[in-house]
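User: I'm writing a tutorial on reading structure tokens. Could you give me a worked example: one chain, its sequence, then its tokens, then a sentence or two explaining what the tokens reveal?
Assistant: Sure. Here is the example chain.
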Amino acid sequence: MISLGFIQGNITHDELSLLEHSAMEDQIQHLKEDMLQAEHPDGFLLDAGWFPSFEVEGHFQIKTIKDHNWDSPSSILTAQSIDTLVELLLQAQSQLIQRQEKANPHIPA
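And here are its predicted structure tokens:
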């Protein structure tokens, strides 16, 4: 199973952790569009899924979304393997947190 302990947001949907570190064709029944969603403050979302669903010749897609604007994601990253997926989830989360900080800069004391 994939550990999602590194995800900083509030995980509202998780089927991604059901995956194993094994070949995609061995776990095709778990590969679908809606696998992970984590909410972050200020309307930011981290979303991941497999496209096209249940097709071994697909890819993971990681999106960062602001204010549920699914038609215009802030970023879209793709991965073919679980190892790359985890790396890109970390990268997308870092970018999301940077955008969040820019949207809410700290006021100096």
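What the tokens reveal: DSSP finds one helix and five strands in the chain. The chain has a mean pLDDT of 90.
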